[in-house]
Amino acid sequence: MGVHSQGAGEDLDYAHSKLANLLFTAELSRRLQARGSTVTTYCVSPGRVNTNIFGGVPGLLRRPLQVLAGLFFQTPKQGAQTVLTAALAPDLGGQHALYMHGQKEAEPACVAKDAVLAADVWQSSLEVVGLTKNDDERLWPKV
Questions:
Q1: Parallel, antiparallel or unpaired: strands 42-45 and 104-105
Q2: Residues in Cβ contact with 31 at an 8 Å cutoff, skipping those fewer than 6 apart
Q3: Which of 5, 55, 75, 132 could covalently link to 12 via disulfide, CB atoms 3.0 to 4.6 Å apart?
Q4: What is the Cβ-side half-sphere exposure of residue 106, based on CA atoms within 13 angstroms?
Q5: What is d(CA 40, CA 67) in angstroms, rounded to the nearest whole number?
Q6: Cα separation of 48 and 96, whole Å?
Q7: What is each CA distance from 134 to 31, 123, 126, 127, in whole angstroms?
Q8: What is the chain's pLDDT, residue by residue, as a tens digit (143 residues)?
């Protein structure tokens, strides 16, 4: 993909990973539709969820961060509701490359709608798992 944060911190790395998820979902949707499939794709982000995200923080800083997360973040059960809504809500059927944030449909950033970048993310994903473009075409079922 050619995007590296080099010293910009974990927040930028996290944002890049979320962008890659959106782009991959959009490209998967495009490929499915091009093959006549009725499968729909959704990209979901529950928001801030109080998992063990601060478990690796060293020393005295860990406990205050965990307390703040308990106050301001969703519980894991609450966070799971976005995924469940995407999977089970009958009114979402038929939409493609839908982005949901916090149980609601949301508009992704403009860069997440870049078709060329989405194709690049797809190609990079193939390379990461050791597949070629020929493998990609061969693995798609005939619809």
A1: unpaired
A2: 122, 140
A3: 5
A4: 18
A5: 39
A6: 25
A7: 15, 11, 10, 12
A8: 444 445 457 788 888 999 999 999 999 999 999 988 888 899 999 889 998 888 888 889 999 999 999 999 999 999 999 999 888 888 887 788 889 988 888 999 999 999 999 999 999 999 999 998 888 888 887 76
Active site residues: 14
CB-based contact 76:51 (threshold 8 Å) = yes
d(CA 133, CA 135): 5
Q: Give pTM, 2 decimals.
A: 0.80
Secondary structure letter of residue 111 according to DSSP: G
Q: Mapping DSSP to helix (H, G, I), strand (E, B) and coil, where does residue 98 land?
A: strand
Is residue 121 within 8 Å of residue 20, measured between CB atoms? yes
CA dihedral 96, 102, 103, 107 (to 10 degrees): -30
Q: Judge whether 123 and 31 are in contact, CB under 8 Å.
A: no
8 Å CB contact between 5 and 12:
yes
